[in-house]
Model the fold of this input.
Amino acid sequence: MGTFSLRDVHKRYGTSLALDGVTCYIPQGRVHGLVGPNGAGKTTLLRALAGQIPVEGEVRLGGEPVRDNQPVLDRIILAGADVPYPGQMKVGTLLDLAAARWGTWDSAYARRLQHIFRLDLAARFDGLSRGQKTLMGVVMGLAARSEVTLLDEPYLGLDVQNRDILYRELLDEIDRDAEGARTFIISTHQVEDATLLLDSVIFIDDGRITEVIDVDELVSSTVVATGTTSAVEELLAGVTCSVLRDESVAGSRRIVLDLGSDTSEVLRAADGLDVQIRNADLPETVLVRGRRHE
Ligand SMILES: Nc1ncnc2c1ncn2[C@@H]1O[C@H](COP(=O)(O)OP(=O)(O)OP(=O)(O)O)[C@@H](O)[C@H]1O
Done:
């Protein structure tokens, strides 16, 4: 089985801690968004999950250690714009090497992706643009059809057409996996591009996982309340939940609330007040909850 379990994982670079005591489970068969500010530790976490860097603590997949464990490593691919492929190699050669490396590689699918993303087989990797390098990672990550697919910033530098293609390809891949045997972890700064894909969100900041939470729970426990300044003030006086965002403009006020476990408290407090309540959408939810705490 392919659940990741991490226990007290630390990664130090000199005196700085890129991972600072990560302990969590990342369930199998789901699509997880890995979200956090610049420098939060997303790439480092993905590299640790892929067994590519030594860390203190435990990183296991299905109970087996990942690092230096070839049968487990064969089930995991990490792909993304910053995965350093040899610069002098041609796109076609890199795809041939990947075909030989991954037992689950789908050559026809790789060809189709290379074609729709217009990657020139004869181009050298270091001659590709930023977006084309990302696309190269996307082709690797998808065509390997690995049990565990770790995609590091797969939208980085992509134009709108290619973002849309990638989004639809990911949806198709997830749909194909009807039994939920595969796990996808996608680090992204653009949750807008992944809204319908994600089952859960992993929040990371300062090298610590702050939350691993189902999207349904995330959205249902985050609401936006809008009304006049005085009505919203009255609403706030009647609730105990925390305010994630607070904006006022021209006599009206808009707040985003974390309802916690008591999701009906805010509705009770809003009864009789001229305040509109609705669930926040996923991008805003992720934005306000993923914001760095000073
Ligand atoms: N090879 C390295 N040597 C030294 N420090 C590193 C190295 N890799 C990462 N770090 C540091 O570890 C921290 C986490 O970096 P990481 O790349 O994992 O963050 P990230 O969340 O992926 O950031 P971004 O969103 O900006 O890409 C940062 O402070 C970074 O400077």
Summary: The mean pLDDT is 92. Residues 13, 16, 18, 36, 38-44 surround adenosine-5'-triphosphate (CB under 6 Å). The longest strand covers residues 16-26. The two ends are 39 Å apart (CA to CA).
